[in-house]
Amino acid sequence: MLRWPASLAITGESTTEDIRMKKSKYIRLYEALCPEDLLKDYDPRISAIIAEMKAVVGTDDIAVAAKAIDWYGWNSSLERNNFIRRAWKIWDTL
Questions:
Q1: pTM score > 0.90 for this model?
Q2: For 14-31, what is each residue's pLDDT tens digit?
Q3: DSSP string of 29-67, one letter each residue
């Protein structure tokens, strides 16, 4: 079973509505990147996935973004970096 780092927590949002809207956007990003893994409301991974997506789109430095998702077990750094670049591109359209 996969375990997500405890350091990937969501902090700093100002209101419940802000949190709901941002969670929705982060989940939409994840599902656009990983269409074979659609999340249910009760999925225990949601908080960790939101934190990872937040870390990826929260920087324009590929090395910083990579740290949040390096544990995924990428076949290559090229594959990982392409995922990050796609995330940045999709984020701008959400």
A1: no
A2: 555 555 556 689 999 999
A3: HHHHH-TT-PPPTT-TTHHHHHHHHHHHHT-S-HHHHHH
